Amino acid sequence: MRVLVVTAVPVERDAVTRAFGGAEERVALPGAELHRRGAFDVLAGGAGPAAAAAATAFALASGASASAPYGLVVSAGIGGAFTPVTPLGSLIVADGIVAADLGAETADGFLPVTALGFGRDRFTPPPALVREVAAATGAAVGPVLTVSTVTGSAERAGALLAAHPGALAEAMEGFGVAEAAARADVPVLEVRAVSNAVGPRDRDAWRIGDALAALTDAFGKAAPVLEGWNSHENLEG
């Protein structure tokens, strides 16, 4: 069994692959390329939940017919955090992957898709895996919101926190990755390194380099956990 890691952009993909030793093999997929090192395939699937879902689905379909199919999918990258709980450069492991803006606006406020009577708006990664990865990396644990539009105001940040108390961060791909993984019956995890605060956009305050370095460090520490858990769960199954 292999581990599929899906990022949005190549710089995030490269930050993840730097954590793994060994020679790199590249595998062409429709519209994308897997970077394979050891038990890990890392894919830059594109920004936003739709691109992430499509890229993940293609990768899972290719792995399903191989001699070593995927046993775990990880959505990974940098993201904005609801500081000061999660400061810049810190790491977050999601215990809930939440579609924060999938639903309907009404006169009484936002209704998630589940309140409309269809679909789902949350995926829950395996709790034991969340705990083990957080322990290995020193990450904070909490919900990570998936949004299609990055938050750019204090008002919007406040509204998100009011709707999703305890949320630690927002990003744009986790729910799409989780949707594809769920349809393939493969467990999912989301790992985010904090590059900026959620709220008014201040590019001068962003710490993208620090966040990418934290992402590399995190996967270096988490790799044995991910490989061990993947093998154990599938042997038990």
UniProtKB/TrEMBL annotation:
Stretches assigned to the Nucleoside phosphorylase domain: 45-204
Keywords assigned by UniProt, alphabetized: Glycosidase, Hydrolase, Menaquinone biosynthesis
UniProt EC number: 3.2.2.26
Known catalytic reactions: futalosine + H2O = dehypoxanthine futalosine + hypoxanthine
Enzyme's top EC category: hydrolase
Pathway listed: Quinol/quinone metabolism; menaquinone biosynthesis
Record GO terms (molecular function): hydrolase activity, acting on glycosyl bonds
Gene3D superfamilies (alphabetical): Nucleoside phosphorylase domain
Job of this protein: Catalyzes the hydrolysis of futalosine (FL) to dehypoxanthine futalosine (DHFL) and hypoxanthine, a step in the biosynthesis of menaquinone (MK, vitamin K2).
Similarity field: Belongs to the PNP/UDP phosphorylase family. Futalosine hydrolase subfamily.
Name of the protein described by the UniProt record: Futalosine hydrolase
Organism (species): Streptomyces rubiginosohelvolus
Gene: mqnB
